[in-house]
Amino acid sequence: MNTSPIKTIKSLGFPWETQDPFLFCVHHLDAYPLGNAQMGPNTSLGGRAIGQDFAGKDGWNMYHGQTVPGFPAHPHSGFETVTIVLEGLVDHSDSLGAAGRFGNGDVQWMTAGKGVQHSEMFPLLHEDRGNPLELFQIWLNLPRASKGVEPHFAMLWGESIPLVDNKDTEGKNTQIRVIAGNFEGYKAPAPPPDSWAADPKNEVAIWSIRMEGNANLVLPPAQTSINRTLYFFKGETLTLEGQAISPYHAVELVADQEVKIHNGPGDAHLLLLQGKAIGEPVVQQGPFVANSPGEIKQAFLNYQTTQFGGWPWPKHDHVHPREKGRFAKHADGRMEEKE
């Protein structure tokens, strides 16, 4: 009888493959250069497919941006985005009039629901040094009953996200950032109210993990046999239950078994995604997710008819003033200001 908690091991592409209730995950790692007066790259953009630049030339991308890197205004409906910024800053603007600047450990969790437009731009604030950016964007599905809810976004500021130090018997440390769910009693900030993650019975967890060289970690079991995937995206070597795992690989695990992890030399960086499957049909076309082709057609019609509220900002690639700090302005006018 095979009792290994490892189901499969897969190499990571772009985007990363995920399991229900997640739709996909992308890892952006850009070594942006000095910024210019417009908060774009202070260098020539020659040789890039401006508007569709994903080639990684010189170690960075403009994505769909033409002046500032990032993703100008675009629509979504039927799911949620969870944007985890490990380094750098993101400027958010949306069709509800909400806005924000967040990064360097902050997380934005947006429920697209019945439909919203938003932009995600990467302003290069520093004119005297480089502007590195590293982030994950995770798409978390919504069940049929919640696909038509009102759009909403929540800021999970880095200061509010539990950072758990887990020392092994040799004193080697592993840090776990609990973005969703809980780890050994440390609970993440509340997700948006209509999220699949809002019900504890769904056991949704998003953990960012950094293991010190030669550290050991025991992943605790989930309460039930749900979907659990561990992504090893940076490091030298990792051993799970005695099986060697190479960097940039994903491991699908049996969630209700504990898993012993040993790191090799140097730090290892991992991301864990888990949750109870929604178990409904998924039809995705571009930025819209639904349960049937007819519902996808209706989503496109709704967007063409309403523009999901229109675009209240001066430009589709709107960025906030350079001197602005971290902040969130919510659709109801509530403000959050951070240093």
Your description of this structure?
It is a single chain. By secondary structure, the chain is mainly β. It contains one helix and 26 strands. The strands form six sheets. Strands 1-20-17-22-15-12-11 form a seven-stranded antiparallel sheet, with no helix packed on it. A hairpin with a 5-residue loop joins β11 and β12 (173-180). The termini are far apart. The model has no long low-confidence stretch (mean pLDDT 96).
Any descriptors?
seven-stranded antiparallel β-sheet; six-stranded antiparallel β-sheet; globular; 26 strands; 1 helix; single chain; 339 residues
Output the strand order for the largest sheet: 1-20-17-22-15-12-11
Total DSSP E strands: 26
The largest pleated sheet is described as: 7 strands, antiparallel
Distance between the termini: 55 Å
Series of secondary-structure elements, N-terminal to C-terminal? EEEEEEEEEEEEEEEEEEEEEEEEHEE
The class by helix and strand makeup works out as mainly beta
Portion of residues within helices: under 10%
Stretches where pLDDT is under 50 for at least 5 consecutive residues are none
- Cα gyration radius (Å): 20 Å
| Range of strand content | 35-45%
Number of helices: 1
| Average pLDDT number | 96
Can you tell me the overall shape? globular
